[in-house]
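Usage

Read records sequentially. Each one opens with the input sequence:
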Amino acid sequence: MSALDRIVMAEITAGTSVYTVKGLDMSFDVNAEEEQATTAQIRIYNLSENIVNDIQQNNSKIVLSAGKETVDVVFQGDIFFCQPIKDATNAVDTEILLDCFDGGIGYLSARFSRSYAAGIMVSKIYKDIAASLGLTLKLDAANVLTAKRLRASCFDGQAKDVLKNLNREYRVKAKLRDGALYIGEENAVINSLARKIPLLSVDTGLIGLPVVAFERVDNKNYNSVEGDIVLPPGLNAYGETLKKTIYRKTISCTSLLNVDYVVGGQFKLETEKFTSTFNKDLGKKSKGDANGIYYIRSIVHTGGTGVDAGFSTIIEGVPI
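and closes with the structure output:
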């Protein structure tokens, strides 16, 4: 895809004003991870001074779209930092840096202080946490929908920390996306986010070779999947004493820019070759087949209109 083929555009809402920005040089890095607000760093060159002032003086939102011929929404959220950056070596262009969050400043700073009597529905607590973050709740976890707290509970702290602790207790996953808080069962697709399983192969946008590695799994929150390696108590390949340890395969792939990949969803990988990293405890690289269906833990969308920018999506996941 040449630079001339790539389209990046933004719709910025600053107070009561709405600006459509297109035709300018732009670049973006969008990072999405489990139980985290999606972040975006967007750079726009030569944005008008009036728009910059409007962004800085108002609570501002942005919808970023990118693609070739047609565009898809890559990110939408709040702008919490807008800074012109002047390059001393470039007397012509002014770079505008926008730092953005899906969930915005509320996710970073909101506190949650509330007490509940015994017998309260857990779904009510999640609904209240979402409200404190300025988000709507999308709940797709049977164990949370039907669960009640058996004891009186008092929560006081950062809303995001209360949310993480509840997720661990009820074994669910959380994702912030498009102004909503999605809660889904652990090791399952969050159906509100992903209705289909995209296929990733050379024919559908795979760039380079997938990278396979093994990471140590916390035994307390462990569900076995095919391909896991279990080391019994004893010595590792380097003679070090280890307790029983479990290692799960992870995969990292790079694709052409594709918004069908979402954190909490799945993708199917088909590849004849892959790169394997060496694991010290196992004393070897992984062997076998990288093909299969993976749960998506994080995604990075990156690209721009510059000659060397390109468009890509990096996906990191674990086997289902």
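Summary fields computed downstream for this record:
- The domain at 3-102 is CATH 2.30.300.10 (Phage tail proteins - horseshoe like beta roll fold).
- Confidence is low (pLDDT under 50) at residues 187-194.
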